[in-house]
Amino acid sequence: MSNQLQALRAITTVVADTGDIEAIKKYQPVDATTNPSLLLKAAEMPQYKTHLEQAVAWAKEQSSDSEQQIIDAGDKLSVTIGTDIVNIVPGRISTEVDARLSFDTEASIEKAHKLIALYKEAGIEKERILIKLASTWEGIRAAEQLEKEGINCNLTLLFGFSQAQACAEAGVFLISPFVGRILDWYKAKTGKASYAPSEDPGVRSVTKIYNFYKQHGYKTVVMGASFRNTDEITELAGCDRLTIGPGLLEELSQNTNPLPLKLKDSGATTTPGPRLTEAQFRWEMNQDPMATEKLSEGIRNFAIDQVKLETLLRGYF
C-alpha cells in the first residue's frame, strides 16, 4: 500500500530540509537545502568533526588574518557538507549566503561567487547548486544579477506577496515561501490555538503565490518551506517543490490516507503587469507587519546561528 510520501513524490518534487547525511540517505529526496541553523546542528554532530578540522586547516592556508580565517572556514564547511549532500541527491543543494549580508547586494554577489568557486574546486558544477539569499530588496537584486550570470538562486525568508512578486520579476530560479513561521505569527497575534488546514495563513499565502505565478506565466519555482505539521504539507500537494524536515518526512511515510491534489498549474491566463519599484516594494512590506517582522526575525536568527557556528570553529584553531 502506498503512503503519503510516495503519493506526494508523484505530484511534487520533495526536498530534504536538513544537513543530516543519514536522514537524506533514508528519505532519498531529489534536492536538499541547508541554512546556518541546519549547518550548526550538523557541525555539532560527532561525525562532522573531521569536516570542521579540514575546513580550519584549509582556512589557515588562505590567510594569516584570524577573522578572515573564521569566515573562510565557515564557507569551506558549508561547501564541504553541501558536497557530501549533492553526492547523494540526484538534484541540487541550496547553500546560503551569510545572513549578515542580507542588505548588501554587492557583498552578496561576491559571497555567491566564492561559494560557487569552492564547489567547483570540489568538482561540483554550478548547475548542481542554488545560492540561497534572503528575500530583501538587496537580496533580490543580487539574485537578479547572479541569474544573468547563469548562477541559479533560491530566495528564502519569503513571507510577503511583494517579495514573491519581486522575485518573479527578477527572474529568480526558485523561491522558498515559509508556511509554519507565518502560522506562528498569526497564532501569537490572534491567540487562536489552531487553524483548519485550508485556513492556515501560511498555506493560504503559498497558494496565492503559486496561483499568481502560474496565471501570469512566471517560470520561478515555488518551493513551500518551514512546515509545522503534515496537514500544511498535504494542503500544498501539487506545489512545484516542498522542502520538508526528517520528522515530517517520517510521518508522511507512515500515513496511508489518500493524498488529493490541491495545487494545479492550469496555464497562464494573463500577462505580467508593471514591475514593482523599490519604493512600492518597501511600502508593501511596510504595510505587512507579519512579513516585515518575520523577515527581520529570520535574518537575525540565521545571523545568530552563523556566529555560533563561527564560535564552534574557533575552538579548532
Q: Can you describe what's shown?
A:
An 8-stranded parallel barrel has the order 1-2-3-4-5-6-7-8, surrounded by 8 helices. The termini are far apart. The chain has about 325 residues and is of the alpha/beta class. β5, α8 and β6 form a beta-alpha-beta unit.
Describe the structure in brief:
The chain is an alpha/beta fold and 317 residues long.
- Strands, total number: 8
Q: Within the largest sheet, what's the order of strands?
A: 1-2-3-4-5-6-7-8
Number of helices: 14
The average pLDDT value, as a whole number, equals 96
Q: Which structural category do the helix and sheet elements fall into?
A: alpha/beta
Low-pLDDT sequence parts? none
Q: Tell me the series of helices and strands, N- to C-terminal.
A: HEHEHHHEHEHEHEHHEHEHHH
Helix content: 40-55%
Characteristic terms for this protein:
317 residues; alpha/beta; eight-stranded parallel beta barrel; 14 helices
Helices and strands in order, then pairings?
Elements: H1 4-9, E1 13-17, H2 21-27, E2 31-33, H3 36-43, H4 49-62, H5 66-86, E3 93-96, H6 105-121, E4 129-134, H7 137-148, E5 153-158, H8 161-169, E6 174-177, H9 180-190, H10 201-216, E7 221-224, H11 230-234, E8 241-244, H12 246-254, H13 278-286, H14 289-314
Parallel strand pairs: 1-2, 1-8, 2-3, 3-4, 4-5, 5-6, 6-7, 7-8
